Amino acid sequence: MPNSILIPSRRRFLATSLAGVAAAGLASASPSFSATGRNTDTLRLTWGYFGLSYLAKEHGALEKRLADQGIKVEWIGPFPNHAPTMQAVTGGTADYAFGGSTTPALAAILAGSPLVFTQFFIYEPRTTAIIAKKSSGISKVEDLIGKSVAVNRSGLGEFLVVAALEKHNIDRSKVNFVYLNPPDAAPALAAGKVDAWSMWSPGVDIARVEYDAQDVFIEERDLPFQIDFNTYLTRRKFAEENPDLVRAFNAAIVAEAEWANANNVEAETIAFKGLKYPEAVRDHFISLKRKYTPYSVTDEGFLTKFQTAADWLSERKVLPEKVKVTDYVAVV
Prior knowledge:
globular; disordered N terminus; four-stranded antiparallel beta sheet; about 45% helix; 11 strands; five-stranded mixed beta sheet; D-Maltodextrin-Binding Protein, domain 2; alpha/beta; about 325 residues
């Protein structure tokens, strides 16, 4: 049969198949083929003094891996936390947020940022915690009633306090949520301007040592489910125009995670040099043997878990409204 007949037939088949998917209520599902190409050879990556992006920046293997594919990396930063990296990506001064929390990422998307998820990780153990100075008299969740807790709005800190109060049957109106970003929350706790702080690593671990603080609620120990994950995001248009770059970066950052998992002491030593926190904190992290497990944006099992998490957050008003997460994943 001539090719001139075969090709239109295939096109009609694909069009009919995709129409059938949409009719079945799965219009957001990705087609089984992927686009190719890129319109730039430069990848602008944001970074802060912690996390997988910082390891990648200092270790150097990610840059070499991408350079071998003709891709130049520019590091934009440092940033104190995830939210401003997403602002940089939205504003066009960077191409990738630095691998932070999915909760503020969803909040940014709901606020209108044209972002899509490109790669997910689960980071274990889950060390986010609510802490208070030992001198505060706060040692359990019930002690938070009538007290102030510093949290990042629509982020991991806020969600953990909401979950802790719910588990202990305490109405959230009985606790004063003080919305502060980490650089402001740490000195507020130290000065006694807030009674407790809900924070992730390494900030929470540093605060335990420097402010003589203790755990009130720990995610890994006290919460039997996971709501927040690590993720990388870019602009939707960037992903559509540079699918080859997205795939190359995904492979490179997953390789970095695999290296960190296999070289725990070296990875923690690099992290230690970045923030120069107490050696006791570094040794604690080494003992935890922290690891990253990657999940692609096409992993249906993970996306189901992520949707459950997003629904939990919107039902409790940590997120302002419901969101369908599969509408905001890159086609890779």
